[in-house]
Design a protein that fits this description.
26 helices; about 750 residues; Alpha-Beta Plaits; about 45% helix; single chain; alpha/beta; CBS-domain; 4 domains; elongated
């Protein structure tokens, strides 16, 4: 009895948690490995990966780009044939042919006491069956008594071989060693080459292919007969009857008789057309942006370094231009990512039309693009290219029925003048781009020495800000809100200030954006909420405290618990806390952020929309969330009473708010005339320098106490008296409030 132990191959197993990319590289580096077993705990097999099926998996849906980072358990055959090593080979073959013939073609796993030992293949079984046939035929010469039995065994083996060969998904062929004529050609070969075996059997390569191709194929046959090793052709391009071409990976081996005389050439041809196509797609994904078709950052870096090396040798001019689309994020957030993607596609086409042949335009990510300009005559040529890009991007875009106007900013760094290394040139071009943005966008600028000073200031600010969080260098100032109907102070808005030990009070506009980018806004915002609740608990019960909340805070873990804890520790009624948000809180992850706001409202906290009217989607958010208050941005208040358009907008907002039962607060009120007109047009509250400049907690406490006394003695005044303003120790420029959290 022959057991499967004698046929097994010792193939190193894989783990179900191995990644697709690992197996891709293994199959690529082990061209003779047809199957890989997948083994779990205690060395027990859990699946099988077959080479051909695996490569087809990697090809589907962008293949390697999608599956490379995922575990192979998603691609393996979870129920492969498994057999103990001491099982009888013939019994196993008979059972598998009867029950799972197609699974047998993939291969099977051999175990010992249930633990992985090795693998077996259909080719191994074929070799065993052939050996058995040869052995049986030899026994015929030795004993006529076993003739009938041996013939039956031979027929069974022959039938098995025929079944296996006909069921194999790869092309199998056999040719005579003497004249190279075909004696066997399976069904997979018929399908692959679009021909019938009747037209193949008995004929040679010269009957089907050009003389050059036929000579090449028969030369490989002779090589296979002359060596004991298989002849492998990794890629053979074969033309089919319909004129199309198929790529084959062919293995040929010579078969000799017992005396060593050549008898046949056995070949197996595997269709690798889909695999090569998938590899080409993976190559495309690895080096090109799938949305715009432009080279991606990886390919740009490679080409940049190659261009630098060439420029160093030839002295040719080379420049890098960093291009950012102006206002793209606003368009993307307000009109949606689909329209944003369509806009990027159109922008990429315009960019490609701007550059010359030989230059390279790439998308580095998001709305960031870059151009390598080569062989230009002078710096003016760089400027002309940059201006072409700016002008092209300034033209309106038609995107899905929307006319979109964005623009572009361009920073330029020239090899030699502004650096010699790719990293330095890109950094300097980016610094030049940063200068354009600070100057109002929509232009271009060359790198200049000293440009990185602003960047260094920003970096120092970030480091100081991290230290300030630990050192507690922040303080709160408050600005009162006046009820226009009663004349009472209805609340105070908390405004954070950074008291830097060396720079003094740092403008919120200089540190709040950095805090949001770095995530430091979360601990700073938590401190603001807690301190504001503590100080508001000392005010009259009728006075609320308003705290500005950023989108970063709302999306942070534990935000709701922070508010609950702050209210509880301060003993402040939740109805006296007002949270002010801008539409940026709702732009990203809309449903989740609205859910957070509903939780706050359920606690009793009031929700206010800040800077109403300055964004793109304010009205739609009034439908998605029941705000308690909307704050009219000071841009609409500044030119009252002269600006009729601003007045019309304020009337529309107050009318809409009244119909929805929402309080309206006008920001930036600085004159009696402004306040009077806001009252006449239905505004509920006002806030601004006319009432009070922002002041520290102690001054606000005195202001509230004094104002409350005036209210009790005089009744509700028609307007707020100038004597109720709070003076500040040092005057500051009257500018738009930018530093609230």
């Amino acid at each position: 009895m022959t057991t499967l132990r004698s046929l097994l191959l010792h193939i190193a197993p894989a783990s179900p948690d191995d990644l697709g990319d690992d197996l891709y590289e293994r199959f690529k580096n082990e061209p003779d490995t047809l199957i890989v077993p997948v083994v779990g705990e205690d060395s027990r097999p859990v699946g099988l990966l077959e080479r051909h099926s695996f490569f087809l998996h990697m090809a589907a849906q962008f293949g390697r780009a999608v599956l490379a980072g995922r575990p192979i358990r998603l691609m393996m055959e979870p129920n492969p044939p498994i057999v103990e090593a001491d099982a009888d080979t013939g019994v196993f073959m008979a059972r598998m042919l009867a029950e799972r013939p197609s699974d047998l073609l993939q291969g099977f796993i051999v175990t010992e006491n249930g633990r992985y030992l090795g693998v077996g293949t259909a080719l191994g079984l074929l070799q065993h069956a052939n050996a058995e046939t040869q052995r049986r035929l030899a026994e015929l010469d030795e004993s006529s008594r076993q003739l009938s039995f041996a013939n039956a065994e031979a027929r069974q083996a022959q039938a098995f071989m025929t079944t296996v060969i006909e069921s194999m998904p790869a092309m199998v062929f056999v040719k005579r060693a003497d004249d190279h004529s075909y004696v066997l050609f399976n069904k997979a070969g018929e399908d692959l080459l679009q021909t019938s075996r009747r037209t193949v059997i008995g004929r040679r390569e010269t009957d089907f292919f050009t003389p050059e191709a036929a000579a090449e194929y028969e030369a490989r046959d002779r090589t296979a007969l002359e060596t004991a090793d298989p002849v492998v052709v990794d890629e053979s391009r074969v033309r089919r009857r319909d004129g199309s071409e198929v790529l084959l990976r062919i293995r040929k081996i010579g078969v000799h008789d017992s005396a060593g005389r050549p008898q046949f050439i056995v070949g197996v041809g595997e269709d690798i057309t889909a695999r090569r196509r998938a590899e080409a797609q993976i190559e495309q994904l690895a080096h090109y942006d799938p949305l715009t078709g432009l080279p991606n950052r990886a390919l740009f870096q490679t080409e940049f370094k190659r261009a630098l090396a060439a420029a160093a040798g030839t002295g040719d001019a080379l420049a890098v231009l960093c291009v950012d689309l102006d206002h793209f994020k606003t368009v993307n957030d307000t009109l949606g990512h689909n329209l944003g993607d369509a806009l990027l596609e159109q922008a990429a086409k315009r960019l490609k039309r701007c550059v010359r042949e030989g230059d390279l335009a790439a998308r580095l990510g998001g709305d960031e693009f870059a151009v390598l300009q080569r062989g230009f005559p002078d710096q003016a040529a760089c400027a002309r290219l940059a201006h072409r890009i700016v002008e092209a991007m300034a033209e309106p875009f038609e995107v899905s029925g929307h006319q979109v106007v964005i623009g572009a900013s361009v920073g330029i760094a020239i090899y030699g003048d502004h650096g010699v290394e790719a990293e330095d040139l890109l950094k300097n071009a980016d610094l030049a781009l940063y200068r354009v943005k600070r100057n109002g966008r929509g232009g271009c600028h060359f790198f200049e020495k000293g440009m990185d000073e602003l960047l260094q200031i920003r970096r120092r600010t970030e480091l100081d800000l991290r230290r300030a969080v630990q050192a507690g260098e922040f303080e709160l100032h408050y600005q009162p809100l006046l009820n226009l109907q009663t004349g009472a102070v209805s609340g105070c808005e908390a405004l954070v200030r950074w008291n830097h030990p060396e720079r003094g009070l740092v403008s919120p506009g200089d540190f709040i954006p950095i805090a949001e980018e770095t995530g430091l806004i979360v601990p700073i915002g938590e401190w603001v909420i807690r301190r504001a609740c503590e100080e508001a608990a000392l005010w009259p019960d009728s006075v609320r405290v308003a705290v500005n909340i950023s989108a970063v805070q709302v999306r942070s873990a534990g935000f709701i618990q922070t508010v609950v804890s702050a209210l509880a520790n301060a003993g402040l009624d939740a109805r006296r806390l007002e949270v002010e948000i801008t539409e940026s809180v709702l732009l990203l992850d809309n449903a989740a952020n609205i859910g957070e706001l509903h939780q706050l409202r359920a606690l009793g906290v009031r929700i206010s929309m800040d800077d109403f009217g300055t964004g793109y989607s304010s009205l739609s958010y009034l439908r998605s969330f029941p705000f308690d208050k909307i704050k009219i941005d000071q841009a609409f208040v500044r030119d009252l009473p002269r600006d009729k358009e601003a007045l019309a907008i304020i009337r529309a907002v107050t009318g809409l708010s009244a119909s929805l039962g929402i309080v309206t607060t006008a920001e930036g009120v600085e004159t009696e005339a402004q306040m009077q007109q806001l009252r006449e047009n239905g505004c509920s509250e006002v806030q601004g320098f006319l009432i009070s400049r922002p002041a520290c907690a102690a001054d606000i406490q005195r202001f509230l106490t004094g104002h409350e006394a005036v209210q009790r003695s005089a009744g509700p005044p028609p307007v707020v008296l100038k004597t109720t303003r709070i003076s500040r120790p040092a005057a500051r420029p009257r500018a738009r409030r930018t530093g609230s959290i």
